[in-house]
Amino acid sequence: MINLAYKDIRHTLSKFLVTAMGVGMLLGIVLIMIGVYRGMADDARMLLRDINADLWVVQQQTLGPFAESSRLHQDTQDILRALDGVDKTAALTLQNIQLYNRQQQAVRVMAVGFDPAGDFQVIPAQRILAGRSLRAQHFEMVVTDKTGFQLGEQIALGRDTYHVVGVVQGSVSSSGDPLVYISLKDAQNVQFSYSNPRIRNDRARGLLGQNTQLVNTVVAKVRPGYSAQEVAEQIETWKHLTAYTHEQQATILSRNVIERSSKQIGLFTAILVLVSGIIIGLIIYTMTLEKIKEISIMKLIGIPNRMVVKMIMQETLLLGAIAFVFGNIFAHLIYAQFPKRVVLMWNDSLLLFAIILTASFLASLVGVYKVMKADPASAIGG
């Protein structure tokens, strides 16, 4: 049996492929947008996974260090460690800072402060690319490879200069900024101490010195056999603390930190998918109009409508399938160039493929309608 779609595509192959490539680039952008969301969601939980704490203890009635400001006294970690059911604790600071590279270009990072000799190993050993973790209590820094800083480099921060002793791979904050790691004492000095002019001004006003023995959160590991939720409830009997389990903190990150961004990306992606379907429909409608005389001739010589309709649908579905292949290739070629991490997953690709095939089928109905309305008599005489 003659395949009309094959004959027609072969006749205009270059035009068909160029059209599919154009639609494919649009679908590639859709995949990139989905990948940006996946990367954002994964980045938001990266530090949470690295620290792997059962409990996050923060200032009362706050959502914790990722969502809003939280300040605790550093000795809270010692009090928590004495609780029944708590195995180990660590005090942490998290702060957004701006560093400058050798070219004096600004590099926005999040600095994580922790005690190198403490109970928790905050820096994931499996992701250390060069050098080592922190050992000294002062003037050492571990950077993420995305910062552009190199092992052994000197970095100015505040009044001091830090020596890069290690480089880790891909560590980022919930907002996608690369992480740097410094000791807790250095982090407190940067975050909670004032500049010399401010100190002199405060003294002139009769104000006492600033307390730097503060942290943003205390994390804890629960002993085997104890429930993290029960220990959290025990901690919250103290009126000045709020405790979240690992799962609750992950939910806060998803709902309060990246929810608005994820909704915006989701809406933009949905619009792109809709536009892709409309474009495919317009392309098929235009292609049908271009060969409406040939279709009329086919109908005139007795070729049934179902064969012509089958041709239109086959061409539409093939256009969608080829565009999807080009879109995947395009997305995988450019995703690494984006400043934020893009995570491309085959599950998302397959879902998009199903959506595009459905949209292509619906778009083919536009061409089918035109075919059914074609008058065979119009083929006579031009």
TrEMBL record:
Domain ABC3 transporter permease C-terminal: start-end pairs: 267-376
Domain annotation MacB-like periplasmic core: ranges: 19-237
Key words, A-Z: Cell membrane, Membrane, Transmembrane, Transmembrane helix, Transport
Its membrane topology: Multi-pass membrane protein
Highest taxon above the source species: Bacteria
Transmembrane segments: 16-37, 265-289, 316-338, 350-369
A Pfam short name: FtsX
Subcellular location: Cell membrane
InterPro entries: ABC-4/HrtB_transporter, ABC3_permease_C, MacB_PCD
Coarse class of the protein's main subcellular location: membrane
The protein's name: ABC transporter permease
Lineage summary: Bacteria, Pseudomonadati, Pseudomonadota, Gammaproteobacteria, Thiotrichales
